[in-house]
TrEMBL record:
PANTHER family associated with the record: MANNOSYLTRANSFERASE YKCB-RELATED, UNDECAPRENYL PHOSPHATE-ALPHA-4-AMINO-4-DEOXY-L-ARABINOSE ARABINOSYL TRANSFERASE
Topological type in the membrane: Multi-pass membrane protein
Keyword Transmembrane found: yes
Pfam families hit by this protein: PMT_2 (PF13231)
Name of the protein described by the UniProt record: Glycosyltransferase RgtA/B/C/D-like domain-containing protein
One GO location term (cellular component): plasma membrane
Domain Glycosyltransferase RgtA/B/C/D-like: 60-209
Length: 529
């Protein structure tokens, strides 16, 4: 795969798109600071085998992303920016690789457009700017699956092993199932073709890369690791919701429409071509890949918007093929133009009606909305006139300004509502009696640890449903850090979310003094006379 100027431009564009204002907003609660704190504790303890958080062993994820964050901290120091740098870099590599690996399969123009669509899709952007594992998993799965399609089996099995080290069994399971379903649909599921996958030496190669860490962890930590990592984080979270009431069969339809912005207008055209594309070996592979990820997580009981990120690279290539087909055929459907305008104006409306205000007040909000509407109209005119180059350039400018506006103008509002770095700093500056223990809401605890090295103790859950969930996990041998107590002592400092405290039973609220309020938090003092 030979680099060219398109690769360099695409990579540099991604660095700007994902890197601008990267450290302005602190790590978003609760997930980002969990990864940052775990990597920080790896460096502090010198133990890069067994992940820890709050000084306790932590069996949530395999170590590859923690290792990359620890490397980033070692190079740049511990900071918000350094915690997100691995995702930024990996996110920028993904569309470059996508272009290089697909141009001989679908043509240079469609490949470049698909890679650019991948780079500029909102879900890709958000997670490339986040300290979470999903961007790394997406890159490793993309290389694995594209390598299988290109019959580059050494790379396929190496990155399959790295995917196993990134997020567990899905690193093996997803490629096997996607490739298997594709072979069945395209009538390739025969002994010769199956042997042609070189699995007899490829699986051992992948295991050689991915399994040693699991074997070592099982040997050192025994059933605590097996029950918590495999039992709870991989099986239980699929069949039982981690957050009751937050899983919906339609959730990923919304994620798809919003996450593919500003390219959501291509989705009706992609859908109409499904039957035709299933007859082609390459496009069928992209369809199976996309639909498998979408359906699998739609059926999962635990759902987060980030889970379906691996479907966006193949979906982007399908969108690139669709736009190129429209250009070459000279037929630009009214549905494409209407869909583009509809989703663009819908997003602009969401910004206009957002319940938070940007720095600079309403005038800034309306300037952002005006530009988004103007760009949507200009892009639609470019489509109508068959000027696809103008359309793509307008989309690039739109998403660049969108990112700079949202992560710049809305940084203060987002920080106060969705992060607790300022809360942690206020807690650190508060004079407290060292003889009185501090209990920290588990939602805030990762940030207080990351930004101030204050661990405190985990605040007990007084919501009966959550208590029942914790009790069931304990019965199954699941070890989750900070679940060692179910009641408060007579004297305690309590850092808690306002919305959580509001729903506490009245008997728990009695005898508490509010010491201060900050953003979404309360610091309370419980003290017996």
């Amino acid at each position: 795969m030979k680099l060219n100027k398109n690769c360099i431009f695409l990579f540099l564009f991604c660095i700007v798109l994902y890197g601008a204002f990267l450290g302005t907003i602190p790590l978003l609660d609760p997930d980002e600071p969990v990864y940052g704190e775990t990597a920080k504790e790896m460096i502090a303890t010198g133990d890069f085998l067994s992940p820890r958080i709050y000084g306790e062993f932590w069996y949530d994820k395999p170590p590859l992303f923690y290792w990359l964050e620890a490397l980033s901290f070692s190079l740049f120091g511990v900071s918000t920016w350094a915690a997100r740098f691995p995702s930024l870099f990996l996110g920028a590599l993904t569309p470059v690789y996508l272009y290089l690996s697909s141009r001989k399969l679908i043509g240079g123009k469609a490949a470049l457009r698909g890679a650019f669509i991948c780079a500029t899709s909102l879900e890709i952007i958000v997670l490339a700017r986040s300290s979470v594992t999903d961007t790394l998993l997406t890159l490793t799965l993309t290389i694995t699956l594209m390598s299988f399609l290109r019959k580059e089996y050494i790379a396929a099995y190496i990155f399959c092993g790295l995917a196993l080290l990134t997020k567990g069994p899905v690193g093996f399971g997803f490629p096997a199932l996607i490739v298997g379903i594709w072979m069945v649909l395209t009538k390739q599921f025969h002994v010769k073709e199956i042997l042609g996958l070189k699995w007899y030496w490829g699986i051992p190669l992948a295991c050689l890369i991915g399994l040693p860490w699991y074997i070592a962890m099982g040997h050192i930590h025994g059933s605590a690791f097996i029950d918590t990592f495999l039992g709870y984080h991989n099986v239980t979270r699929f069949v039982s919701p981690e957050h009751a009431g937050q899983n919906h069969y339609w959730l990923y339809i919304v994620v798809l429409l919003a996450g593919f912005y500003p390219w959501s207008g291509t989705l009706p055209g992609i859908f109409r071509r499904t039957k035709k594309w299933l007859k082609d070996r390459t496009s069928a592979f992209f369809l199976v890949w996309t639909l498998f990820i979408f359906i699998f997580f739609s059926l999962s009981s635990t759902q987060l918007f980030s889970y379906v990120l691996p479907m966006f690279p193949p979906l982007s290539l399908l969108a690139g093929m669709y736009l190129t087909d429209c250009e070459e055929s000279g037929h630009i459907s009214k549905t494409l133009i209407f869909s583009h305008l509809f989703f663009s104006l819908l997003t602009a409306g969401a910004i206009a009606l957002a319940p938070i205000n940007p720095d600079g007040g309403p005038i800034i909000r309306w300037l952002i909305v005006f530009f988004m509407v103007l760009a949507a109209v200009l892009a639609a005119l470019g489509l109508k006139r068959g000027r696809f180059r103008a359309f793509m350039m307008t989309q690039a400018l739109l998403i660049l300004v969108f990112v700079l506006s949202i992560w710049g103008a809305f940084a203060s509002a987002v920080s106060s509502l969705f992060t607790s770095a300022a809360i942690a700093e206020k807690l650190a500056s508060t004079d407290r009696d060292p003889s009185i223990p501090l209990y920290v809401d588990t939602f805030y605890r990762p940030s207080t640890a990351f930004y101030t090295d204050i661990y405190g103790k985990a605040l007990p859950e007084f919501d009966r449903r959550k208590q029942e969930t914790d009790e069931k996990n304990e019965e199954k041998g699941v070890l989750l850090p900070g679940k060692e107590t179910s009641r408060l002592p007579e004297n305690a400092y309590i850092l808690v979310q306002k919305k959580v405290f509001k729903n506490w039973p009245e008997e728990q609220k009695s005898g508490l003094t509010v010491l201060w309020e900050k953003d979404t938090a309360l610091l309370l003092l419980k003290k017996e006379d």
